[in-house]
Structures are given as structure tokens and as C-alpha cells.
């Protein structure tokens, strides 16, 4: 599947010195949108995530385990060059490439590239229009700036684990991380947004700039309503399992054959839920008439609902509630996600070329009518494009 039209970022050159997830996630998005992304990797080993398997691209018997499934999630739409940054020749080559680059993304420790003369201050001298994005755990300033930062660590430090998981009083209670490296993913999204803003600024002024994106900053910003509940109301949000601090009913409920999710966002939806459940009188009950009242009387309402939801199967509830316009859904495992007819219709599984034949990746969620995302360039083999990139960029 490839786009017949140039992408929105066609002509933008990106030098990607990042590894693992946050930086590669940002540059993959830029590549999907048409930028020419060149991934700089260590000769012989490459990005750390190449070795984060199994599973491996090509299967367990593939002779060269240099591409894990993990690596493929964040490295399509790129070309790979193998350059030794610790060598003078490698540093000189990066400086020459950076002189031709629009955007450079790196996630070394603060000051880590200064010793090589590859920091923003040095490279902006040879390319004043360079947009240089640094992704770190804690940012370029502050008392934690020199600390290494990892997604799991920041989920704890940034408050996410304090509101994720069952309450301490419940079985299995205690802090819990999210099931994917969500801070890294969000950091990649914030970084790509900042890069696009910097490109627009340069379009107007010709000026490049240094972008400082930190995992901890992103995690705190993404606390959203939980942070607002604290800053405005003085509350310290706690773990509530699958319940919502501000909306009721908005959680999972047991059914005759499993569980379902109810996300009732307004009083009209609640009234229709009560009718479907055979208890229209609940909507008139002063304890439940408004969302604020339902939040106050959460325990009583949830107990009443659970007593009813176990009487029908998940499919029966979803069928009846969808007809009534009440938001609800199943709790799918990942295999069920990719088998879901809507996911299939939206083509969220994308076949791409790979070094061991065709492989599948997850589609970009960006749907642009005039400049659609391209899936022509699969995750690259280590150093596969070194000569090609040097010839194209430096000739």
C-alpha cells in the first residue's frame, strides 16, 4: 500500500539519532507524513530494540535476529545508516549530514552529544535553520536533568501509577503501570507536534530552534482531568480501578458471560440505560437524577447495576444498549481487536515490505484526504541505506 501523492512533509529531511521508543515514535510519524527520515544506528548492533525479542521478524528460525517485532512498531518509513558516533570520521559525517538536514531528533543524556560536537550549539553554527529536538527523561534543566529516564520510572514519578490499578482496599490493589509504554508514545506525539510548529516558525522566519521535550513533563501534562481535580479542587486522586472520578456510571460491569464497559456521559444516556435495564424509576431517583448525584451515591448505583448486568450476556447488553443510544462495548484482547469488523474495515493492519518478506504493522491513525500517509517503506535492515543516503544527501 503506497500513496500515489507526495506526503504533507515531502521534501523535509529528518536525521534521527534517537533509539528505543519515544524518539523513533516521533520520527516514524514524520516519515509516515512524507518526510525523508534517516535513522542513524550503531554499526553491528543498531537500535537497542532490534534485540528486544522474541518474537522476531522472519520467525524463530530466521538466520539474522536483527529485527524484533518491537523494533517494527516504531521504525517504518525510515532509511537506516550505520555510523559510529564515537569515531572522528563518524562525527564528521554526521556534521555534513546535519548541514543538509531540516530536523534532527536525539535522545542522548543531557550533554551526551557535546563531547562529539553534535549538540545544538555546535550544529546550529553550520545550519542556522536546523530544528534540533532533544528528548530526555527529565529535560535539559532542573535538578533531575542528568538522570536517565525510562517510561516505567516516569509513570511512577509522574503520578500515573497513583491513579492506575485497583484501590488499596480491593483485592489486587496497589500501583500499576499501563500495559504499554504510554509515556514514551505520548512523548513521541508531543515531540512531533513541536517539530511541526518549529517548521512553521522557520517557514515564516528562516530560524531554527532547540526543542526540549521531557518524559516527566509529558506525563504530568497528560494527567488531564486528574491534575485539574487536584489543582482546582485540592483533591489528591486515588486509584479507582476502572471507575471514573467524575462520571458515573463509567466503568466495567459483569455480565452473564464476562464483562462489558458502560460509558454514560450525560443524564439522557443514563435515563435510556435505566429503561433498557428495566428500572426506569432509577432515573427519577433523587440520588441518581444528575451526574453529580450519581458521583455522590456511586456505591449504591453501581451495586444496583451490577445486580442487573449479570442477567444477560455481553452481546445481549451491547445489542440492546446500542439500539438505545447508550455508549457501551466489550473488553477485547488484542487478537479480538484485529478481528473486529470495524478495525478490519478501517484497515488498521497494514502489510509492508520487510527484510524477511511481507510483515504487518499497525496503520497510522492519521487520515489526510489530500496528502495520505504512505506505507511504501518498511522497517529497515541495519545500515541498509548508508551508501544511498550519503550519495543522495551529500552529492
Brief summary:
The chain has 395 residues and is α/β, with parallel strands linked by helices. It is 36% helix and 14% strand.
CATH architectural grouping of the largest domain: 3-Layer(aba) Sandwich
List low-pLDDT spans. none
CATH class annotation of the largest domain: Alpha Beta
What is the H/E order?
Answer: EHEHEHEHEHHEHHEEHHHHHEHHEEH
Estimate what percentage of residues fall within beta strands: 5-15%
> What is the count of structural domains?
2
User: Over all CA atoms, what is the radius of gyration?
Assistant: 25 Å
Question: How is the largest sheet built, in terms of strand order?
Answer: 3-2-1-4-5-6
Please tally the β strands and state the result: 11
The average pLDDT is: 94
Fourth CATH level, the homologous superfamily of the largest domain:
Crotonobetainyl-coa:carnitine coa-transferase, domain 1
Main sheet characteristics = 6 strands, parallel
Shape: elongated
Number of helices: 16
Label the structural class.
alpha/beta
Amino acid at each position: 500500500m503506497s500513496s500515489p501523492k507526495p506526503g504533507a512533509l515531502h521534501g523535509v529531511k529528518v536525521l534521527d539519532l534517537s533509539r528505543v521508543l519515544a524518539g523513533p515514535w516521533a520520527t516514524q510519524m514524520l516519515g509516515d507524513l512524507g518526510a525523508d527520515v534517516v535513522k542513524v544506528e550503531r554499526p553491528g548492533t543498531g537500535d537497542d530494540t532490534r534485540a528486544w525479542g522474541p518474537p522476531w521478524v522472519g520467525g524463530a528460525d530466521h538466520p539474522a535476529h536483527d529485527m524484533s517485532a518491537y523494533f517494527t512498531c516504531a521504525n517504518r518509513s525510515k532509511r537506516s545508516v550505520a555510523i559510529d558516533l564515537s569515531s572522528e570520521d563518524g562525527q564528521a559525517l554526521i556534521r555534513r549530514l546535519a548541514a543538509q538536514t531540516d530536523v534532527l531528533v536525539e535522545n542522548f543524556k543531557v550533554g551526551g552529544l557535546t563531547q562529539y560536537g553534535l549538540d545544538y550549539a555546535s550544529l546550529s553554527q553550520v545550519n542556522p535553520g536546523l530544528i534540533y529536538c532533544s528528548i530526555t527523561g527529565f529535560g535539559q534543566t532542573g535538578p533531575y536533568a542528568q538522570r536517565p529516564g525510562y517510561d516505567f520510572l516516569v509513570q511512577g514519578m509522574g503520578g500515573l501509577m497513583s491513579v492506575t490499578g485497583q484501590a488499596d482496599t480491593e483485592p489486587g490493589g496497589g500501583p500499576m503501570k499501563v500495559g504499554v509504554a504510554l509515556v514514551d508514545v505520548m512523548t513521541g506525539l508531543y515531540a512531533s507536534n513541536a517539530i511541526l510548529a518549529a517548521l512553521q516558525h522557520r517557514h515564516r522566519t528562516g530560524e531554527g530552534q532547540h526543542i526540549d521535550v521531557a518524559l516527566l513533563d509529558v506525563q504530568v501534562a497528560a494527567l488531564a482531568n486528574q491534575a485539574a481535580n487536584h489543582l482546582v479542587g485540592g483533591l489528591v486522586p486515588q486509584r479507582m480501578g476502572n471507575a471514573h472520578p467524575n462520571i458515573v456510571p463509567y466503568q466495567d460491569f459483569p455480565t452473564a458471560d464476562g464483562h462489558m464497559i458502560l460509558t454514560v456521559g450525560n443524564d439522557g444516556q443514563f435515563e435510556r440505560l435505566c429503561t433498557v435495564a428495566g428500572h426506569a424509576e432509577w432515573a427519577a431517583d433523587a440520588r441518581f437524577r444528575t451526574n453529580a448525584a450519581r458521583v455522590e451515591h456511586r456505591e449504591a448505583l453501581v451495586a444496583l447495576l451490577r445486580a442487573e448486568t449479570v442477567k444477560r450476556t455481553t452481546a445481549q447488553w451491547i445489542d440492546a444498549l446500542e439500539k438505545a443510544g447508550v455508549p457501551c462495548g466489550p473488553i477485547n484482547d488484542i487478537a479480538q481487536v484485529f478481528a473486529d469488523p470495524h478495525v478490519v474495515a478501517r484497515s488498521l493492519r497494514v502489510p509492508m515490505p520487510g527484510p524477511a518478506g511481507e510483515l504487518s504493522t499497525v496503520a497510522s491513525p492519521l487520515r489526510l484526504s489530500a496528502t495520505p500517509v504512505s506505507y511504501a517503506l518498511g522497517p529497515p535492515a541495519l545500515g541498509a541505506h548508508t551508501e544511498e543516503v550519503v550519495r543522495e544527501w551529500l552529492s
